[in-house]
Design a protein that fits this description.
The complex is a heterodimer of chains A (111) and B (113).
Chain A (H helix, E strand, L loop, with lengths): L8 E5 L4 E6 L8 E7 L6 E6 L2 E4 L4 E4 L5 E6 L8 E8 L13 E6 L1
Parallel strand pairs in A: 1-9
Antiparallel strand pairs in A: 2-7, 3-4, 3-8, 5-6, 6-7, 8-9
Chain B lengths: L3 E4 L2 E4 L5 E7 L5 E7 L5 E9 L2 E4 L6 E3 L9 E3 L8 E8 L8 E2 L3 E5 L1
Parallel strand pairs in B: 2-11
Antiparallel strand pairs in B: 1-3, 3-8, 4-5, 4-9, 5-6, 7-8, 9-10, 9-11
The chains are: A mainly beta (111), B mainly beta (113).
Chain lengths: 111, 113
Protein backbone atom coordinates (compact mmCIF):
# COMPACT_ATOMS: atom_id res chain seq x y z
CA UNK A 1 0.00 0.00 0.00
CA UNK A 2 1.53 3.31 -1.09
CA UNK A 3 1.10 5.38 2.07
CA UNK A 4 1.65 9.12 1.79
CA UNK A 5 3.26 11.51 4.26
CA UNK A 6 2.85 15.28 4.10
CA UNK A 7 3.21 18.16 6.57
CA UNK A 8 0.25 18.67 8.89
CA UNK A 9 0.12 22.42 8.35
CA UNK A 10 1.79 25.32 6.51
CA UNK A 11 1.50 29.09 6.69
CA UNK A 12 1.96 31.52 3.85
CA UNK A 13 1.21 35.11 2.84
CA UNK A 14 -0.79 36.41 -0.07
CA UNK A 15 1.19 36.60 -3.29
CA UNK A 16 3.76 33.99 -2.29
CA UNK A 17 4.42 30.70 -4.03
CA UNK A 18 3.59 27.70 -1.86
CA UNK A 19 5.19 24.29 -2.27
CA UNK A 20 3.72 21.30 -0.47
CA UNK A 21 5.78 18.13 -0.59
CA UNK A 22 4.42 14.62 -0.19
CA UNK A 23 6.47 11.47 0.21
CA UNK A 24 5.27 8.12 -1.12
CA UNK A 25 8.22 5.77 -0.80
CA UNK A 26 6.29 2.61 -1.70
CA UNK A 27 4.72 3.85 -4.93
CA UNK A 28 4.42 1.14 -7.56
CA UNK A 29 5.19 1.34 -11.25
CA UNK A 30 1.61 1.83 -12.45
CA UNK A 31 0.44 4.15 -9.67
CA UNK A 32 -0.41 7.82 -10.29
CA UNK A 33 -0.08 10.79 -7.94
CA UNK A 34 -3.12 12.95 -7.40
CA UNK A 35 -3.82 16.08 -5.36
CA UNK A 36 -7.11 17.35 -3.99
CA UNK A 37 -8.21 20.56 -2.23
CA UNK A 38 -10.86 20.71 0.48
CA UNK A 39 -12.61 23.73 1.99
CA UNK A 40 -14.41 23.42 5.36
CA UNK A 41 -17.71 21.53 5.24
CA UNK A 42 -17.31 20.73 1.54
CA UNK A 43 -16.23 17.69 -0.42
CA UNK A 44 -12.66 17.64 -1.81
CA UNK A 45 -12.00 18.93 -5.31
CA UNK A 46 -9.53 17.39 -7.77
CA UNK A 47 -6.59 19.71 -8.55
CA UNK A 48 -4.00 17.83 -10.57
CA UNK A 49 -2.53 14.42 -11.29
CA UNK A 50 0.79 13.22 -12.64
CA UNK A 51 3.03 10.24 -13.26
CA UNK A 52 6.51 11.75 -13.63
CA UNK A 53 8.39 15.01 -14.34
CA UNK A 54 6.18 18.10 -14.37
CA UNK A 55 2.51 18.73 -14.97
CA UNK A 56 0.93 22.19 -15.05
CA UNK A 57 -2.65 23.34 -15.28
CA UNK A 58 -4.48 26.60 -14.63
CA UNK A 59 -4.49 25.99 -10.88
CA UNK A 60 -1.16 24.41 -9.94
CA UNK A 61 1.99 22.60 -10.97
CA UNK A 62 3.06 19.15 -9.89
CA UNK A 63 6.72 18.18 -9.77
CA UNK A 64 7.69 14.51 -9.59
CA UNK A 65 11.36 13.46 -9.49
CA UNK A 66 12.67 10.50 -11.45
CA UNK A 67 12.46 8.06 -8.52
CA UNK A 68 8.80 9.07 -7.94
CA UNK A 69 9.17 8.63 -4.19
CA UNK A 70 7.93 12.15 -3.58
CA UNK A 71 5.97 14.88 -5.29
CA UNK A 72 5.57 18.62 -4.81
CA UNK A 73 2.41 20.60 -5.39
CA UNK A 74 3.22 24.19 -6.29
CA UNK A 75 0.61 26.94 -5.94
CA UNK A 76 1.74 30.19 -7.59
CA UNK A 77 0.91 33.51 -5.94
CA UNK A 78 -1.59 32.26 -3.37
CA UNK A 79 -4.54 34.31 -2.21
CA UNK A 80 -6.68 34.15 0.91
CA UNK A 81 -9.12 31.90 -0.93
CA UNK A 82 -6.42 29.22 -1.25
CA UNK A 83 -6.68 28.57 2.48
CA UNK A 84 -7.75 24.93 2.56
CA UNK A 85 -6.59 21.39 3.24
CA UNK A 86 -4.54 19.80 0.46
CA UNK A 87 -4.42 16.02 0.11
CA UNK A 88 -1.83 13.96 -1.71
CA UNK A 89 -3.09 10.59 -2.94
CA UNK A 90 -1.54 7.69 -4.73
CA UNK A 91 -4.00 6.05 -7.09
CA UNK A 92 -3.25 2.38 -6.64
CA UNK A 93 -3.65 0.76 -10.01
CA UNK A 94 -3.91 -2.86 -8.90
CA UNK A 95 -6.60 -2.07 -6.34
CA UNK A 96 -9.15 -0.96 -8.90
CA UNK A 97 -8.46 2.73 -8.53
CA UNK A 98 -9.31 2.88 -4.84
CA UNK A 99 -8.82 6.45 -3.60
CA UNK A 100 -7.20 6.60 -0.16
CA UNK A 101 -6.90 10.00 1.49
CA UNK A 102 -4.24 10.73 4.12
CA UNK A 103 -4.20 13.41 6.78
CA UNK A 104 -3.70 16.30 4.39
CA UNK A 105 -1.85 19.60 4.78
CA UNK A 106 -3.77 22.52 6.21
CA UNK A 107 -2.60 25.62 4.36
CA UNK A 108 -3.29 28.98 5.96
CA UNK A 109 -2.80 32.05 3.77
CA UNK A 110 -2.51 35.33 5.64
CA UNK A 111 -2.91 38.88 4.31
CA UNK B 1 -27.12 20.03 -14.25
CA UNK B 2 -24.66 17.13 -14.00
CA UNK B 3 -23.35 16.26 -10.60
CA UNK B 4 -23.51 14.20 -7.46
CA UNK B 5 -26.20 14.85 -4.88
CA UNK B 6 -26.27 13.86 -1.25
CA UNK B 7 -29.32 14.19 0.94
CA UNK B 8 -30.14 15.34 3.46
CA UNK B 9 -27.47 17.93 4.34
CA UNK B 10 -28.10 17.54 8.08
CA UNK B 11 -29.52 14.48 9.79
CA UNK B 12 -30.32 13.81 13.42
CA UNK B 13 -31.06 10.35 14.78
CA UNK B 14 -31.50 8.72 18.12
CA UNK B 15 -28.92 6.24 19.32
CA UNK B 16 -29.77 2.68 18.28
CA UNK B 17 -31.61 3.62 15.11
CA UNK B 18 -30.45 2.71 11.63
CA UNK B 19 -30.25 5.58 9.17
CA UNK B 20 -29.74 5.64 5.40
CA UNK B 21 -27.84 8.40 3.60
CA UNK B 22 -28.68 9.02 -0.02
CA UNK B 23 -26.16 9.52 -2.86
CA UNK B 24 -27.20 9.99 -6.48
CA UNK B 25 -25.08 10.86 -9.52
CA UNK B 26 -26.06 11.68 -13.10
CA UNK B 27 -22.51 11.71 -14.46
CA UNK B 28 -22.77 8.15 -15.82
CA UNK B 29 -19.84 7.19 -13.61
CA UNK B 30 -19.07 3.55 -12.93
CA UNK B 31 -17.33 4.00 -9.58
CA UNK B 32 -18.82 5.37 -6.38
CA UNK B 33 -17.34 5.86 -2.91
CA UNK B 34 -18.37 6.63 0.66
CA UNK B 35 -16.05 8.41 3.08
CA UNK B 36 -16.30 9.48 6.67
CA UNK B 37 -14.63 12.61 8.00
CA UNK B 38 -14.28 13.49 11.68
CA UNK B 39 -13.36 17.02 12.89
CA UNK B 40 -9.78 17.94 12.01
CA UNK B 41 -9.19 14.60 10.31
CA UNK B 42 -8.73 13.36 6.78
CA UNK B 43 -11.23 11.23 4.87
CA UNK B 44 -11.51 7.53 5.64
CA UNK B 45 -12.93 5.12 3.07
CA UNK B 46 -16.00 3.17 4.18
CA UNK B 47 -17.11 1.34 1.02
CA UNK B 48 -16.55 1.66 -2.69
CA UNK B 49 -18.14 0.21 -5.79
CA UNK B 50 -16.55 -0.11 -9.22
CA UNK B 51 -19.63 -1.50 -10.96
CA UNK B 52 -23.33 -2.11 -10.42
CA UNK B 53 -24.17 -5.00 -8.06
CA UNK B 54 -20.62 -5.11 -6.72
CA UNK B 55 -18.90 -3.28 -3.86
CA UNK B 56 -15.89 -3.67 -1.58
CA UNK B 57 -15.14 -2.75 2.00
CA UNK B 58 -12.87 0.14 2.70
CA UNK B 59 -10.81 0.74 5.81
CA UNK B 60 -13.70 1.32 8.25
CA UNK B 61 -16.66 -0.73 6.96
CA UNK B 62 -17.77 -2.13 10.33
CA UNK B 63 -21.21 -0.87 11.30
CA UNK B 64 -22.05 0.28 7.78
CA UNK B 65 -23.78 -1.33 4.80
CA UNK B 66 -24.29 -0.30 1.16
CA UNK B 67 -26.06 -1.43 -1.98
CA UNK B 68 -25.44 -0.69 -5.64
CA UNK B 69 -28.58 -1.82 -7.47
CA UNK B 70 -28.46 1.06 -9.96
CA UNK B 71 -25.51 2.78 -11.56
CA UNK B 72 -26.59 6.21 -10.38
CA UNK B 73 -27.32 5.34 -6.75
CA UNK B 74 -25.13 4.20 -3.84
CA UNK B 75 -26.99 4.55 -0.52
CA UNK B 76 -25.15 4.10 2.78
CA UNK B 77 -26.84 2.69 5.88
CA UNK B 78 -25.36 3.53 9.25
CA UNK B 79 -26.46 0.72 11.53
CA UNK B 80 -26.81 0.62 15.29
CA UNK B 81 -23.61 -1.45 15.35
CA UNK B 82 -21.55 1.61 14.45
CA UNK B 83 -20.09 2.78 17.77
CA UNK B 84 -19.50 6.44 16.94
CA UNK B 85 -21.73 7.36 14.00
CA UNK B 86 -21.69 11.14 14.46
CA UNK B 87 -19.55 12.46 11.58
CA UNK B 88 -19.50 14.19 8.20
CA UNK B 89 -20.21 11.69 5.40
CA UNK B 90 -19.05 12.29 1.84
CA UNK B 91 -20.04 10.43 -1.30
CA UNK B 92 -18.00 10.55 -4.50
CA UNK B 93 -18.04 9.12 -8.01
CA UNK B 94 -15.50 8.67 -10.78
CA UNK B 95 -15.31 7.12 -14.25
CA UNK B 96 -13.66 4.10 -12.73
CA UNK B 97 -10.36 2.27 -12.58
CA UNK B 98 -7.41 4.37 -13.58
CA UNK B 99 -9.29 7.68 -13.41
CA UNK B 100 -7.97 9.81 -10.52
CA UNK B 101 -10.63 12.51 -10.73
CA UNK B 102 -13.45 11.91 -8.29
CA UNK B 103 -16.40 14.25 -7.92
CA UNK B 104 -17.75 14.76 -4.43
CA UNK B 105 -21.17 15.62 -3.10
CA UNK B 106 -21.74 18.36 -0.53
CA UNK B 107 -21.83 15.87 2.32
CA UNK B 108 -24.28 14.83 5.02
CA UNK B 109 -23.60 15.81 8.60
CA UNK B 110 -25.03 13.06 10.80
CA UNK B 111 -25.57 13.67 14.50
CA UNK B 112 -26.67 10.83 16.74
CA UNK B 113 -28.08 11.82 20.12
Amino acid sequence: LAKTTQPISMDSYEGQEVNITCSHNNIATNDYITWYQQFPSQGPRFIIQGYKTKVTNEVASLFIPADRKSSTLSLPRVSLSDTAVYYCLVLIYNQGGKLIFGQGTELSVKP
Amino acid sequence: DGGITQSPKYLFRKEGQNVTLSCEQNLNHDAMYWYRQDPGQGLRLIYYSQIVNDFQKGDIAEGYSVSREKKESFPLTVTSAQKNPTAFYLCASSRGQGDPEAFFGQGTRLTVV
